[in-house]
Amino acid sequence: MTKTLLERKIQVAGERITPQRKLIAAILQEQGGHLSADEIHRLARRQNPRLSLATVYRTLRWLKVSGLVRELRLNGERHHYEVKRDEGHQHIVCLGCGRVIEFNCGHCANVHGDLADQYGFRITGVRVKLVGYCANCQARKHNETQ
Amino acid sequence: MTKTLLERKIQVAGERITPQRKLIAAILQEQGGHLSADEIHRLARRQNPRLSLATVYRTLRWLKVSGLVRELRLNGERHHYEVKRDEGHQHIVCLGCGRVIEFNCGHCANVHGDLADQYGFRITGVRVKLVGYCANCQARKHNETQ
DNA sequence: TTATATGCAAACAATTTGCATCCTG
DNA sequence: CAGGATGCAAATTGTTTGCATATAA
Predict the structure, then answer these.
(1) CB distance from B122 to chain A under 8 Å?
(2) A51 CB inside 7 Å of strand C
(3) Whole-number mean pLDDT of chain B?
(4) Residue pLDDT, tens place only, A74-106
(5) A89-94 and A69-72 strand pairing
(6) Are A60 and A72 a contacting pair, CB within 8 Å?
(7) How far is the CA of B87 from the C1' of C24 (A)?
(8) Fewest 10 Å CB contacts: which of A4, A100, B69, B118?
(9) What domains are defined for chain A?
């Protein structure tokens, strides 16, 4: 039985547990996906209409610095946030519809090692982002061009 | 003898060639590196002090949509721009000093193929970003912790 | 009780845009 | 000469911050 995001956070640092933080953590955890601050805010407001966007950002930073949440720049201008789980999963972003899917990159581990030696770098993170068009969008594009 | 960025751009679309565009293209090409709009602006002003940041952004977009320049988000908030050359070169960013070095990712081509089949995606781009600490910064960090 | 978290509004930084003017083709 | 390009300033967008108030521990 895996711990909730919040339980892990509490474990890490004995900080205050507020309804707002509970709510945001729950949303991140349940939705799983790659939510923007704004999307989280919209969802959270359904349960607490007074919750401010500032609090969303503050909570995300709080979760981020403690290493429980990852901040990604998948497309466009805004950040997206996801609960950290397995390392090594990466993202494919559809340029047509914005959909993001995850995949596991078997090759990434290799890249790690190759470079450490070559440049004397100590690698702490690998981000692989593929962009392209999903099956749907390929079809749609094809039709539009007719 | 390879063509200048601007010559390629003219070839692509018969658009207007202005001193500002010439200057910005030259800077991108000569500096090679990963310049932010602001850095380009600063450099360009040494030769044309009236050149506006807005024009830098407009020119970068113009070069980007024609596929001659790549827009990257390497670290922090701002975009960085580089002239497109070989596909397949990727970036390592030092979290200590911000230095960016490039490397060629032999594994990337494989990733391409693997996924096309698996998800029906047509992959158009692969971005691999490694973050970590360069040799210098590892040393420095070590000293500070003493 | 008391420090920490929140909400709100204002501040910021990066980027974009409206518009009058300029200049390339 | 005409329409696209520029400069400037104002607008937008995403994110952060200051401060008075509310609240978890």
Answers:
(1) yes
(2) yes
(3) 85
(4) 988 899 999 998 777 889 999 888 889 888 877
(5) unpaired
(6) no
(7) 34
(8) B118
(9) 1-86 (1.10.10.10), 87-146 (3.30.1490.190)
